[in-house]
From TrEMBL:
UniProt-listed Pfam families: DUF7885 (PF25372), F-box-like (PF12937)
Keywords from the UniProt entry: Cell projection, Cilium, Cytoplasm, Cytoskeleton, Flagellum, Leucine-rich repeat, Repeat, Ubl conjugation pathway
Gene3D superfamilies linked to this entry: Ribonuclease Inhibitor
Species name: Nyctereutes procyonoides (Raccoon dog)
The protein's name in its UniProt record: F-box and leucine-rich repeat protein 13
Length: 823
């Protein structure tokens, strides 16, 4: 019969509740023992008996005759539950058999061992002892072998380790020697290439210098060349190959002529017929700048030019031109004019502006600074210039607050985004309220040289001009921290202040709340301390910071500033005259400012060569100002490893010599600007180094260097053809020959300063003035504060006395003398 252990629980319950296993057990036991002849009748009879007695009193031997009942002890009330799998007991017959078998075996084993020990006679004890000794000896030998093997194993492992270490040392030594050999070869190769480059540069320099001198001799034998043609003739002596510009595409020609000034364009138009046609392109006359020829230009030429190109002119510049009223009225012919600059024009009147405004309604940019306009002109602005965006009224002191109220008339100047009111001291608080009511869209505000500007004026503007993003208040000493509180409603991005003693660290509490500010210019604000820098450190958009002459700033404040997120964004940092800064600040700069491009540490006296060494690690740096520091030749040699510096200022650095400048020039082939002014210890050797290595130089200042001679300037003129700015003030040994060399070699020279050059004649200076745009000349002896006399000899302390004012001859904005004939 299959077991019911895995059967359904309802079936199992049914069997138990109706005593089916007990009934079956009783019937089967009766059949097995009684063995009736008719089992069916027997079963019927027994079932009836069970039903009469009840199931509760049912026993397994109930169906057996009492005389035939077996005399055995029951192990369980019934075996049928086990048979049907309905019992929950752990004891089964199989387990009982195993238990009995184990118990019987244990008894047999115990009694047999005791019997064996008694029955079997004892073996000889000597044999047992001998066997034990043999086993002991064997075990002892095993332990000895194990001990010896352990010692041998540790020794072998140690030797193997020593061998491995020795092998590694040998490999390192081999690698080290290989590196030494490689580096030695590389060093020799680098030295060879460096020497080869030096020789090539020197050879090239000598060849170019010889060629230059031969050209100078040829030019000296020829007849004198008029100034107006000297430039074109000199160009024939250069190394530029002949080229017919008329063969170039029209677009390329227009782009070339686009960079020329008005006088240069007129001169080019007189070269030949084809050049004249090229200079008549309408695109070249979109922008006309008459200010470059203001000293020689005639009203007739201006009028004719404006009449001819009236439909093409978009931008006009009359700055500083002395013109007649009729000439100014001719501006009204330019109906498409967008930009007009009539600043510094003494003849500009309200009547002239009326004519101009009636004809040029599309003007977007208007510069009226330093003119005599009145409220009448202010009334014209909103009426005739509805699209005006940029307006400059700087130093116009004849209009009043009432004139500013006119800006709200008609359509008003509501599109104005830039306003310059510098020097307009007549404007009161009411005037600024009028501006706020009229020009609510102002974004850029410039108010310089305004001692009458107060916090109330700024509050009046900030109340309605909430779009201001840029403010420039230079020369406004009465502005205080309250002005920044008023400007907190604006989204400022640029702040420029200078020479203010009322601004304190408290203003930076408001500045730090300007999330988009990127330019902070706080120069000569004496009350600013390290606390201000700490407040600026969270500004993530700040890229330009100028705190020059803020003498209370030190290493602690700069460290706190650089610890913030601003250090990764800063591009320009000016800390001139922050005398408490030291090398520790430079170390922090090199660690944090990976994108710094411009750095000024002028007059930081505690800066040494150790700090200069860390400047080299600011790889993005292109401009450095180390004037007035303690840098020496070692620092310059270290700085030469940077390779990317384009601008370097070393003015008043008395520890540097020619050797340091030469070393720097050798490593800075892309140098464009160099300032070594007031370093009297320098000589011609630095000019020679510049001529050999720094041929792309555009600006050079050697003022106060009395040892510079004509021979050095000859080399500079022969090699540095891109020079635009040159300052040779105080170079007392220079003569007229130097100017002749500059005229032939430096054709792109625009600004020339030669103060206190007594050996340069006035006639030569006059001739040179026709070749440059701006020139400063003074033939007097150098002042005593230069530290040397008219021969370049150093002065003693007793000889240095208070300086009297020297007579100065200044020629500014000069032009070619032959331009009058051209025009």
């Amino acid at each position: 019969m299959a077991s019911l252990r895995t059967a359904d629980s309802r079936l199992r319950s049914y069997f138990k509740e109706n005593y089916i296993p007990q009934v079956c057990e009783a019937l089967l036991c009766g059949l097995l023992i009684t063995c009736p002849e008719d089992p069916l009748k027997y079963l019927q009879k027994m079932i009836i008996t069970i039903m009469e007695n009840g199931l509760e009193s049912l026993l397994w031997d109930m169906c057996i005759d009492p005389s035939m009942k077996p005399k055995i002890r029951r192990l369980s009330e019934t075996y049928m539950e086990q048979l049907f799998g309905l019992d929950d007991q752990l004891m089964t017959p199989e387990l009982m058999i195993k238990a009995c078998t184990f118990y019987t075996g244990h008894l047999v084993k115990t009694h047999f061992c005791i019997w064996r020990d008694i029955a079997i006679p004892l073996i000889n004890e000597e044999d047992i002892l001998a066997e034990k000794m043999e086993k002991a000896i064997e075990y002892d030998n095993f332990r000895l072998q194990k001990y010896v093997f352990r010692l041998w194993h540790s020794y072998a492992a140690g030797q193997k380790k020593l061998l491995t270490e020795a092998l590694l040392r040998i490999r390192k030594m081999c690698h080290h020697y290989k590196l030494i050999i490689t580096l030695t070869k590389w060093r020799d190769k680098a030295r060879y290439e460096y020497k080869k480059r030096e020789d090539e540069l020197m050879l090239k320099h000598e060849l170019q210098l010889r060629k230059w001198r031969s050209k100078v001799k040829v030019a000296a034998k020829e007849e004198p060349i008029p100034p107006e043609y000297s430039l074109s003739k000199a160009s024939l002596l250069g190394e530029i190959p002949e080229c017919d510009i008329s063969l170039l595409p029209e677009r390329a020609v227009s782009q070339i002529f686009y960079y020329l000034t008005l006088r240069e364009l007129v001169i080019c138009g007189q070269v030949c017929h084809s050049w004249m046609l090229m200079t008549q392109a309408s695109s070249l006359w979109n922008s006309i700048d008459f200010s470059t020829v203001k000293n020689i230009i005639t009203d007739k030429y201006i009028v004719s030019t404006l009449q001819r190109w009236r439909l093409n002119v978009l931008r006009l510049n009359f700055r500083g031109c002395l013109l007649r009223s009729k000439t100014l009225r001719s501006v009204s012919l330019c109906r498409n004019l967008q930009e007009l600059n009539v600043s510094d024009c003494p003849t500009l009147t309200d009547e002239s502006m009326r004519y101009i405004s009636e004809g040029c309604a599309g003007v977007l940019y208007l510069n009226l600074s330093n003119t005599t306009i009145t409220n009448r002109t202010m009334r014209l602005l909103p009426r005739y210039f509805p699209n005006l965006q940029n307006l400059s009224l700087a130093y116009c002191r004849k209009f009043t607050d009432k004139g500013l109220r006119y800006l709200n008339l008609g359509n008003g100047c509501h599109k104005l985004i830039y306003l310059d009111l510098s020097g307009c001291t007549q404007i009161s608080v009411q005037g600024f309220r009028n501006i706020a009511n009229s020009c609510t869209g102002i974004m850029h505000l410039t108010i310089n040289d305004m001692p009458t500007l107060t916090d109330n004026c700024v509050k009046a503007l900030a109340e309605k001009c909430t779009r201001i993003t840029s403010i420039v208040f230079i020369g406004a000493p009465h502005i205080s921290d309250c002005a920044f509180k008023a400007l907190s409603t604006c989204n400022l991005r640029k702040i420029r202040f200078e020479g203010n003693k009322r601004i304190t660290d408290a203003c930076f509490q408001y500045i730090k709340n300007y999330p988009n500010i990127n330019h902070i210019y706080m120069v000569d604000c004496k009350r600013i301390t390290d606390g201000s820098l700490k407040l600026l450190s969270p500004l993530k958009q700040l890229t330009v910071l100028n705190l020059a002459n803020c003498i209370r700033i030190g290493d602690v404040g700069l460290k706190q500033f650089l610890d913030g997120p601003v250090s990764t964004r800063i591009r320009e940092l000016n800390l001139s005259n922050c005398i408490h800064l030291s090398d520790a600040s430079i170390v922090k700069l090199s660690e944090r400012c990976s994108n710094l491009n411009y750095l000024s540490l002028r007059n930081c006296e505690y800066l040494t060569d150790l700090g200069i060494e860390h400047i080299v690690y600011i790889f993005s740096l292109v401009s450095v100002d180390l004037s007035g520091t303690n840098i020496s030749n070692e620092g310059l040699m270290t700085l030469s490893r940077h390779k990317k510096i384009k601008e370097l200022s070393l003015s008043e650095c008395y520890k540097i010599t020619d050797v340091g400048i030469q070393a720097f020039c050798k490593g800075s082939l892309i140098l464009e600007h160099l300032d070594v002014s007031y370093c009297p210890q320098l000589s011609d050797e630095i000019i020679k180094a510049l001529a050999i290595y720094c041929i792309y130089l555009t600006s050079l200042s050697i003022a106060g260097c009395p040892k510079i001679t004509d021979s050095a300037m000859e080399m500079l003129s022969a090699k540095c053809h891109y020079l635009h700015i040159l300052d040779i003030s105080g170079c007392v040994l220079l003569t007229d020959q130097m100017l002749e060399d500059l005229q032939m070699g430096c054709k792109q020279l625009r600004i020339l300063k030669m103060q206190y050059c007594r050996l340069i004649s006035k006639e030569a200076a006059r001739r040179m003035s026709s070749m440059v745009q701006q020139q400063e000349y003074n033939p007097n002896d150098p002042p005593l504060w230069f530290g040397y006399d008219y021969e370049g000899k150093p002065l003693t302390k007793q000889e240095i006395t208070p300086l009297k004012e020297d007579e100065e001859i200044t020629v500014t904005d000069s032009i070619y003398s032959g331009e009058e004939e051209v025009v």
